[in-house]
Amino acid sequence: MDGKPSGGYPEKPQARCLGAQQEKAMQRCQALLSRLPPMEGSVKYERSWGVEESLEQFQCLMRQHELQSSVGQSHVAVRKTHTDFCTLNAMDVAKIAREAFSMPDTLSKAKALEEVKLATQKLRSSMKLKNIKELQSAGKIEMMEKEIQKSNAEMTTLRKSIEDIINGGGPPFTGKNKAEVGTNRTWFYCSDCHVGGHGQRFCRYLLKRPNWRIYPSEKWFEDRNGQLSHCPLGKKSVDFTDETYFSRICMHIKGRIWLEDKRKLYEFVPDLMPYTYVIQNRQWLGEVPKNEADASPWPWFLKETDRNWGTSVVCCASAKECLQKAKGDAVYVVQKHIPDPLLYTNGEKCHIKFYNLLIGLDDGVTWRLYTYKDGYLSISPKPWSPEDLSKECQVTIIRTKRINDWPYWPKVYGKCKAGIATVIKRAAEQGKLEGRNKIQFEIISADYIVTNNEDVYLLEFNTGPVLRDAEDSPDVHDAGMVDGALHIVEPWEGGSPELWDLALECKGQPPKQDESFTDGYN
Q: From 2.60.40, 2.30.29, 1.10.3720, 3.30.1490, which CATH number describes the 275-337 domain?
């Protein structure tokens, strides 16, 4: 048996040694591949709103490209080495097999064929994996180069935007005069000054238009509490930004506090809301609720006047309990549950999320209100009972479903529309809503609850309502509503008002003073 393998065909000692070395080498290649970092670039291009931010992102993308290209080359090199060893092994096995076929032993020939087949499979597999790694590496490099191109194009556009604004290509510095925007401008500009709210969202929607560009923002000042404020680069005016003073179009209505604050709202539209009492410093302010001992056991709600979305709502069994649960450093409105509420399919409490677009024109006195023909129902998780004081039963916060297939919507839409029109007309005529020397707008939601008689009660306004984009919520989103609102505010040839319905145009009182950045959000 000397000089022959266990299978019966001859194998030289040198060949056995080379085969073992090649097998060990292939194993070392596999081990090395398992330790190499993956070919995954975690940094991808994202829209930048400032020069420094854009430069930093470009540098990160370049560094990632350098590292990932090196990692990809290493993956391919190791795979190529593995394939080379598989090739050598297949050649050695083929040589030994040829010698075996010169022998009359059938078993030796069968064993040789199996060895050739196994070596060939390893070689094919290794070559396939090498090709895959080459394609993966090339694909990753191409993807990263595209991300770098996007970042580079953005920096080029930012530079052009800065040059255009500096050379007078932007809007007039609104807040000091009412000069016309001009119809011969090539580009319109938006800037994110990090004030919050829906400012950046509105910028993204405006940037879908072919003639809108980003104008970068920069640090403006820092207050004693370390709070940073930003402005468009060079304190220039732009067409839209969330920092009102520098914006031709303002996204905050002056006087919005009269809509946000439930106590202030009740002062001028008590006929549209549930009967409301006030607690301040843990004492009744004004009228005190009557003894409820003989009344129906409807729940009572304790609500902080300047907080929305149900975050401050406490459900109580009586007005007395509301007073007991009030904190000394807050102001509350107290309301008893409306009688005979209209319940949803399985007996759950529900309320309407009703969307409105309020616009103050740049003449300072004209107001327009649009209401949206679609909306949402907020439905409680549990069936309603007047005795159950849990939030799951009594408080409806989250938008649950679209309202367009609710059979009561066509019956109550007109009532909700008329109610909001009354609110805005009174607020404008009484000077609670203040005009500016430039256009201002806001998308506001109103919460309505309905009775079985199809009467509607206004509960509150939300001046920063939840809005969903198609990119984040493909099935249920508000992209059409936002696009339509921005088209009404700033029309363009590719736009549409969508489902917005003109509900009111009225005149208010003339502006009290010239625009300044200190009055932007009241």
A: 3.30.1490
Q: pLDDT, tens digit, for every residue of 496-510?
A: 999 999 999 999 999
* pLDDT at 520 exceeding the cut of 60: no
CA 1 from chain center: how many Å?
Answer: 76
Mean pLDDT of the region 348-375 = 96
| CA angle, 433 then 437 then 443, to 5° | 50
Q: Which of 206, 153, 214, 212 is nearest to 186 (CA)?
A: 212
- Give tens-digit pLDDT for 188-231: 999 999 998 999 999 999 999 999 999 999 999 888 888 889 99
Is the CB of residue 86 less than 8 Å from the CB of residue 126?
A: yes
CB 236 within 8 A of CB 215: yes
272 vs 270: CA distance, rounded Å: 5
Residue with token string 């996204």: 251
Q: For residue 23, which phi and psi values (nearest 5 degrees)?
A: -65, -45
Q: How many CA atoms lie within 13 A of 15 on its CB side?
A: 17
Fold of 342-519: D-amino Acid Aminotransferase; Chain A, domain 1 (3.30.470)
233-249, pLDDT tens digit by residue? 999 999 999 999 999 99
d(CA 483, CA 497): 8
* SS3 call for 121: helix
What tokens were used for 140? 């990753």
- Residue 513's Cβ-count burial label (10 Å; 0-12, 13-18, 19+) is exposed
CA distance 489 to 483: 10
Q: How far apart are CA 175 and CA 514, in angstroms?
A: 7
